[in-house]
């Protein structure tokens, strides 16, 4: 016989694929095996046994003897021949002989074959082969979507990911963490279960106990051995699984080839079932035990009519009815499958029950082939989809990232990154991490926290452990904050810096920091900032003293004016965007420092002259050409610092002499050619920067500046320095490099406090040895060509090189 295992290749699939075979597919597989056995059994009988046995029919003429006629009649009527009567004269029995046909064995074989081909109905001949073919078609249809390249690749990938997700230690940990129960509650439940077990005895009690255990939600059953901390390898594997699930979901949700393939193969099986039932029911009666055969082979055998016996007709008849029963059950199962396929949309899958059971609320619903495979998985075991859902949750992924982050960034490693920032605070900079490590909040000495290019930052309530935290910097970070953490920041945070590319990165909670003193906003905004950023809430920042905006605003927002009563310093760095509406400055009566940098200003804003408390003004990188309005600064009695650098100013008006309160004045990077002597009537000046201009002559009135400590004329066209410059005996920094000087006066030795001297880039041939009298000047503070330095006496050189 032919073993059934030879047909295994028609239905063979990977063992892992069984999770995508619901009960009806398993049931129809067994039915297919039963039908296959019927076909194989029938085919085996066809091959091993005689198919048909035929005998000729003899027709006697009417004039034959009566005895022959009686014999013929007896043969025709299948009645026994009459026996001769015994008589005393004939006591011996007569020998019985059958009809003589005078046919040999080959002729019988020929007759059998001819009658089998000509007289036997085709259904009776080919029934086992039909059963075999139909069954193979059923088996191919049932497993075609496992073999088709476009679908099998997706299935293999899905099964691979599903198995890893099911076995991942992170799955167990995530489900245990969201159970919402502490150990005490679990112990109470365990005690209650034990008491209920002791009150029930016997087989009935055991049954109730087992049922009650099954009814306990799985989220309450936690394997404590796997719910502990994951090691680094397990964490990395779980992280890789999240990435695989994301990519697989994007790929599979694009189409519905798996759903369409399964529907088509099911429809094909139903059609096949209907065809089989239709023609088998009509033809099963054609399987008969006796068959009349009329073939014209008289010239070869001497006979034309034959009576044949189909030796397997009885068995085939029984097998056909049995086969029809199997096919009917198979077809009804396929009809149920169609009902299941079209009863509800299988292209959408909701994890609502998983969200309710596990408490993970952000598990997304899926669609198309992804949804269909999950529906199939549920028919096998819903536990698979429940554990798989953990890797679709963004919350679960964030928890895993947080766990891996905590393992990577230990407190000791974080302490190694501590540094002192510009505000003289102990700062921890964290750049391009996947999140904010919880271990940060164990560094209680931290004063400033700087987060840069970190997405989805969640500031937890544990930030309250940082008692010394006063400064927070968020550079290109999207931040959410716990309510308890916000309460802590409202009370303790003094400085907040936010650098953003997208306005959505501006934290909405920053407007409620009532004790905030300094706010720095750096990012690209539209020209009308007040319409795009909710700065109206700045009025709630009652303690705000410093506001820094680096953006592209065209006017000062009204929200800034709302904090004008207590604002002391405002800086607007506008990246070249023209600032046209600045009359609101008049309302900032308490402003002491103002920076309007790169605002494309052509004149000094008149609103500035109303700021009577102003002490420092910086108009860097504008388009100032004339500063005649400088005369109005005389009303600003407290103005001590004026920076008009990086502009296009061509001259300094004489009105500058009225600014007698100035202590720091910068005209660097302009186009000034002549210095007015009136400039040096501002005798309180301690810092004067005239570098990078076209100045050729320094007036001797510079000696009036007895408070001068810093003087720079670097990169000008000065050919000589007045001796009066060396009367400024408090001078500490002198920059005269990149000019046309040829001689350095020996009087430079009068500058006893000089600690920095730049003379590089001139035409000096020798340096005066009187430089040795400048006791504070060391080699590191002397910027000069090495060859020129060698012209100094050796003792002077050694003095400067000495520490």
Automatic annotation (TrEMBL):
It comes from the Eukaryota. Residues 191-209 have a biased composition (Polar residues). It is a multi-pass membrane protein. The keyword Lyase does not apply. It is found in: Cell membrane; Endoplasmic reticulum membrane. Keywords: Cell membrane, Disulfide bond, Endoplasmic reticulum, Ion channel, Ion transport, Leucine-rich repeat, Membrane, Phosphoprotein, Repeat, Transmembrane, Transmembrane helix, Transport. GO terms for biological process: monoatomic ion transmembrane transport. Residues 1-338 form the LRRC8 pannexin-like TM region domain. It catalyses: taurine(out) = taurine(in); iodide(out) = iodide(in); 2',3'-cGAMP(out) = 2',3'-cGAMP(in); chloride(in) = chloride(out). This is Volume-regulated anion channel subunit LRRC8C. It comes from Fukomys damarensis.
